[in-house]
Write a structure and sequence with these properties.
11 helices; 2 domains; abc type-2 transporter like fold; about 5% strand
Length: about 350
Amino acid sequence: MPERRAGRVPAALAPAAAHPPLVDTEPGIPAPVLAAAAGLRKAMLVPVVTALTIGTVFVAVYLAAFHAPQAHGQPLGIAADDAVSARVESELNTASPGSYTFYRYQDGEAARQAVTHGKVPAALVTEGGELRLITAGAQGPSTISGLATAVDSAVGHPVPRLDVRPLVAGDTRGLSAFYAAFGVVLAGFLFAVSSYQIAPRLPLIARVASMAAFSAASGMAVALIAHSAMDALPAPLFTVALLVGLLACASAAAAGALLRLFGPIGMPIASVVLLIFGNATSGGILPATYLPAWLAPLADVLAPAATIRGLRGAAYFHDAHLVGALLTLTAWIVGCLSLQFALDRFAARRACAAVTVAAAGR
């Protein structure tokens, strides 16, 4: 009869481990990635919570903003006699209180200048004894269609239209600026995340140099595609490259500042601020006047909205809003980089103080 060795238990009789260790089922994963891996519970729960939060916020914000858009103070110019002007204003205010802000002009030429310089998207004027709606199609089909429908209803019959600032053939829906901005914001967010994941201790000066190279390349690439290749953004090539490059830099700087300030949780915060709120309020889909009151103020301060205003102004409206866009983007870049610099200085001083205390205690 064969002798059973001491200390050996048949596999079928061995007790099962209560918590079996994780097994590397994907060989070849780099050691730094494995070293940064989380525990089982964290690895299972954190992605679920993060993705669910971002998705829920995205759906809530976009549905709240666009499921039933209603104008709030939408500008409309009027250059007609007092009786017609009063009747149109009264009809529109009665049908939709608070939806429109009216601007009176002395004559049709003054109203036309206001439309071509981006001050109002459309103006109802009297020309040759007949009413005409002067529009700027470059403001977007949704904006012009909504105004035209409202004016037709207020007047009581269809009003002839004259588009004095039509969209170029390469941008028939007026969405090129929005898509360009969205793509660059996404790229800036991914740049910041990958930069901090690959080199979390990279000196700020090196990170800024990398960011500058990324931003310049992004601006020129988008300008060559949208301006030169597709004729979708008719602003000057340098202007498109400058605005898009500054947006890329602002997005990367903002995401980097949030990652530096909040650590890993800064990534979902940055995605909500930049990708959800930034693009929802950009005016690329509908103007800010159609946003709900709690969301509309962000359109005045966030970088994507400033960039789209600047691109449209430079392309169609005699550089309207261009200076404001440049100032807004510059403020974002300087502010976010200054915050990162201050955090780095504070961390360095705290580390130096800790070393001094440790040395004194020896």
